[in-house]
Amino acid sequence: MPSPYILVLYYSRHGHVKMLADQIALGIESTGLEARLRTVPAVSAVCEATEEDIPSSGDIFCTEDDIANCSGLLLGSPTRFGNMAAPLKYFLDGTAGLWMNGALVDKPAGAFTSTSSLHGGQESTLLTMMIPLLHHGMILAGIPYSESALTTTKSGGTPYGATHVQSESLSEEEIKLCQAQGKRIAMLASKLSTN
Predict the structure, then answer these.
(1) What is the distance between the alpha carbons of residues 105 and 38, in angstroms, rounded to a whole number?
(2) Torsion of CA 90, 179, 148, 164, to 10 degrees
(3) Exposed, middle or buried, 52 (CB in 10 Å: 0-12/13-18/19+)?
């Protein structure tokens, strides 16, 4: 049986969601669990266009096995009109087999996002990203207010999940909240696996 891991599955067009994913992975790994970073290919408006099986740089594309065998899941996307980006939605739409088999039932999950403006739809994006996770039977967890950075942040960070307001780097509060969210999902996964 493979070692337990938390899947950090994201799509990042300009690198901002990737910055969040990297910090979330640090929070996961601070608990001793593996953080498995995976991404999804872009979706082309040209029907004949295809992506290579392995990206030329960055994290590798997620497989059905990556998601089926995870102990927990953190899902990340840039905000597109208050919703997740099409490439991540396209990938999730292809997980009906996992849904039918109940592969993700009772595993902890959360969401994270980045927007180009403070009121760019962060919370609605996180909430809409949670809908497919609920359909998969996952146990959703956000960031509790016991994380003091939630009350001091002037940029990203919500109780629904880690967020970032587009800039070249993450704020101190955004980093703390990412790591807290990763750590929380990992700790929940560990507790749930012992029951």
Answers:
(1) 20
(2) -40
(3) exposed
Q: Does residue 111 contact residue 129 with C-beta atoms inside 8 Å? A: yes
Q: Distance between CA 178 and CA 164 in Å, rounded?
A: 10
Contact 157, 181 (CB under 8 A): no
Asked whether the CA dihedral 174, 189, 84, 43 is positive or negative, the reply is positive
How far apart are alpha carbons 2 and 180 in whole angstroms? 25
Gap between the Cα atoms of 20 and 112, Å rounded: 8
pLDDT tens across 19-77, in order?
999 999 999 999 999 999 999 998 877 766 666 667 677 788 999 999 999 999 999 99
CB-based contacts of 38, cutoff 8 Å, min separation 6 = 7, 8, 9, 10, 59, 60, 61, 62, 63, 66
pLDDT in tens, 138-169: 999 999 999 999 999 988 899 999 999 878 89
In the 8-state DSSP scheme, what is residue 47? T
